[in-house]
Inverse folding.
């Protein structure tokens, strides 16, 4: 086993395709010491992941990826780590979010079905989409149903032809609410994949100051989508602002040419000290 980790993985409980058990088995196979299952706005897969981790000898950190909004920026992603996944307030907030998301998915599917009928095709059944999801239903699950029905040849086609034009508005957690929710559950908070926030690094530094004032604990410096120089710049930025450093591939599914667990797009080597920093930061909120 190496001293490397991957602290940003998704299962079929959000928009991944593998079960938590399969994710842990893959992590064990490639020698990762620790992982975090960070499904979108959902912690339902954590008990299975924890059990599999004990069986496979892989340390599993409780995690979640929350969709948050700040001023004019929406869909910023906030990672929560090392919290009590059974916390009542957290479970209630995520349950409300899940209910809204399910309703949104139904509205998207209704829009798509109208388009399918207009094309002379048989509409999709919401029951089938829900069974594919296993947990929180997202657009990728509808995309998978479109693929299974033979209406598109790949996921990109599903988004271009149906999911984007038939989209419905999302719901987001206000940043302060999301940070408080994780802290009150005994965890710490980390800004996810900063490279995908469409701002300059100077603006990112300003945003981090605002987020730190709201209670942000860390930055996901090791992330897919940026090269080694970018990772180094994010680490430097985090250290200057006394933020913890974490990292993860944001792995969703095994696909040729895609993001790979543990290494992202080939350049990630995330050290175990990220886990130690998470544990230490979370202790402040216990």
């Amino acid at each position: 086993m190496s001293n490397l980790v991957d602290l940003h993985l998704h299962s079929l409980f959000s928009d991944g395709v593998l079960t938590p058990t399969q994710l842990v088995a893959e992590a064990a196979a490639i020698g990762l010491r620790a992982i975090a299952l960070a499904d979108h706005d959902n912690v339902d897969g954590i008990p299975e992941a924890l059990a599999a981790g004990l069986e496979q000898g892989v340390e599993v950190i409780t995690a979640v990826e929350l969709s948050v909004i700040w001023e004019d920026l929406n869909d910023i992603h906030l990672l929560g780590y090392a919290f009590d996944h059974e916390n009542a307030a957290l479970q209630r907030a995520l349950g409300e979010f899940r209910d809204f998301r399910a309703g949104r998915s139904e509205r998207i599917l209704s829009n798509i079905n109208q388009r399918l009928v207009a094309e002379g095709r048989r509409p999709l059944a919401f029951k089938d989409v829900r069974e594919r999801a296993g947990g929180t239903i997202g657009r990728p699950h509808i995309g998978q149903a479109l693929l299974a029905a033979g209406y598109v040849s790949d996921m990109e086609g599903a988004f271009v032809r149906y999911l984007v034009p038939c989209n419905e508005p999302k719901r987001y957690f206000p940043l302060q609410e999301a940070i408080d929710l994780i802290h009150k559950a005994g965890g710490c908070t980390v800004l996810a994949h900063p490279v995908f926030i469409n701002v300059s690094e100077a603006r990112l530094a300003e945003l981090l100051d605002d987020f730190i004032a709201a209670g942000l604990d860390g930055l996901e410096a090791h992330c897919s989508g940026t090269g080694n120089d970018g990772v180094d710049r994010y680490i430097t930025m985090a250290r200057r602002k006394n933020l913890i450093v974490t990292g993860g591939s944001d792995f969703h599914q095994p696909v040729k040419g895609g993001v790979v667990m543990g290494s992202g797009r080939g350049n990630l080597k995330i050290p175990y000290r990220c886990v130690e920093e998470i544990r230490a930061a979370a202790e402040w909120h216990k």
